[in-house]
Amino acid sequence: MVSRVIPVDPFDLVIFGGTGDLARRKILPGLFRRFCAGQMPEEAQIIGAARSEMDDDGYRQLVRDAIEEFGDKPVPEGGALDAFLARLGYVQVDATGTDGWEELSRRITEDRVRAFYFSVGPSLFGDLAERLHQYGMASGQSRIVVEKPFGHDLGTAKALNAVLAQHFDETQIYRIDHYLGKETVQNLMAVRFGNVLFEPLWNAQYVDHIQVTVAETVGVGGRGGYYDKSGAMRDMVQNHLMQLLCLIAMEPPAKFEPDSVRDEKLKVIRALEPVEPHHIVRGQYDATEKEPGYREDVEDPKSRTESFLAMKVHISNWRWAGTPFYLRTGKRLRARTSEIAVVFKDAPHSIFGAEAGRHRNVLIIRLQPNEGMTLDVTIKEPGPGGMRLVDVPLDMTFADALGPDADEVPDAYERLIMDVIRGNQTLFMRGDEVEAAWAWTDPIIAGWAARNDVPKTYDAGSAGPEDSLMLMHRDGRKWREIKA
Ligand code: NAP
């Protein structure tokens, strides 16, 4: 495969929070990779902005350290890093005050795309939008990139949308969900809508159920304070898992264009049924000999926030009536893995008899590790001894299928930042989508509070609370194993 790099026009990118964790771990190493791939034009300018006192050289050193520490490969020789750093600058800016804003506006180039990445806490989003407007940087060429969390509930999300809308048109607002930037997630759309094979079967008549699992091995660690106010529902389900659900369940959009795709995703969210309390299992990880449990991590012995969530969800429309979607996510689980499994129904009649066992086609879309897809197909086990059936995977692991170039596939952040520069909103969430997602999750969360729901504990390194296994067993189904 030959990787194709489509150049972009010169741009200015300002990273508010340019000294923070996200900028150092993801955004800046990602930009360097795009630079190495030849996608960054000569005149592109990247400006870090934060309150810390620093000059341009100081910032370049910070970015050099970040790329050396967090880049996924050794820095290439030949001066690429120096050439990249030469495009970087820094302005000391206080989002809530007046410091630095005149200087920032002087540094911005006239008449070109300017992207402002809000890589700061959400409480500063409104201040940044306001000041960009006040200091004349909110032109028609401007785009803002907004990180998660986008609100804490429907009310706060609406308020945030309203603040941003005062100064920016919806076409200028890029609400980022890095799951949508993953190669496999986009490939899901290619597989669904680029082949005739799947779409006729992609409905309740042929699909028994769908499982979405996002499992982490880490606990909440140093983010306990934030996490305990949020929990798995707000931190993972309302955004990432819902976005995945939408892409699996949506009708074919007329075009692969922002509003066509986002209209279809919105219809899915609006068709979600309220979830029965007994279709939800919440959990908190237990302490081990070596590591603290959830409640110790968040320093609240009475915390009722979930670090694990499993739920059975139904979509009320013609395509999916009767086909459940099982969603599951949690911390301190057996392995770090994210996947979607589309489990098809049994063949209507087995000509091989009961002894051939039960065999099903399963399409597995793996987001991590080893991004790729496999389709389990039933074949005859080779060799003599009668007709024994076995399921073998048709493997579309990108690293194998694409050869050495698979390494060059941009990661989610790189791809999404370049989409911002190109002005392509297809893989970003629209304001009404985010609000609809909160409108569905809010009553579920309110129900837990009203019922004084206490999460079940689960062993660190397990697949979650026993009850989450029962959620499937009761329906005669089984979760796929959580394994790396
Ligand atoms: P962080 O490490 O705390 O960084 C915050 C950044 O904001 C720092 O550069 C800080 O620099 C700057 N800042 C704080 N107050 C400021 C102010 N008044 N004016 C200007 N700059 C200010 O946070 P983070 O982890 O990078 O997260 C940033 C955003 O991304 C958050 O919304 C977070 O929820 C989201 N996010 C993060 C991750 C991640 O992996 N870290 C993942 C997904 C989403 P100074 O102190 O020098 O001002």
General description of the model:
The protein has 484 residues and is α/β, with parallel strands linked by helices. The chain folds into two domains: 11-147, NAD(P)-binding Rossmann-like Domain (Rossmann fold), CATH 3.40.50; 180-409 and 431-473, Dihydrodipicolinate Reductase, domain 2 (2-Layer Sandwich), CATH 3.30.360.10. It contains 15 helices and 15 strands. The chain has helices at 21-36, 56-70, 80-85, 101-107, 125-134, 154-167, 183-194, 224-228, 231-249, 258-270, 294-297, 398-401, 412-422, 431-450, 466-473, and strands at residues 11-16, 45-50, 88-92, 113-118, 142-146, 173-175, 207-215, 280-285, 308-313, 325-330, 337-344, 362-368, 372-380, 389-395, 456-458. The strands form two sheets. It has a nine-stranded mixed β-sheet with strand order 14-13-12-11-7-10-9-8-15, sandwiched between helices. Strands 3-2-1-4-5-6 form a six-stranded parallel β-sheet, with helices on both faces. Helix 6 (154-167) links the parallel strand 5 (142-146) and strand 6. It is globular. The two termini are 27 Å apart. The model has no long low-confidence stretch (mean pLDDT 93). It binds NADP nicotinamide-adenine-dinucleotide phosphate. NADP nicotinamide-adenine-dinucleotide phosphate binds at residues 16-23, 50-52, 93-96, 119-122, 124, 147-149. The active site is at residue 240. Residues 14-187 form the Glucose-6-phosphate dehydrogenase NAD-binding domain. Pathway: Carbohydrate degradation; pentose phosphate pathway; D-ribulose 5-phosphate from D-glucose 6-phosphate (oxidative stage): step 1/3.
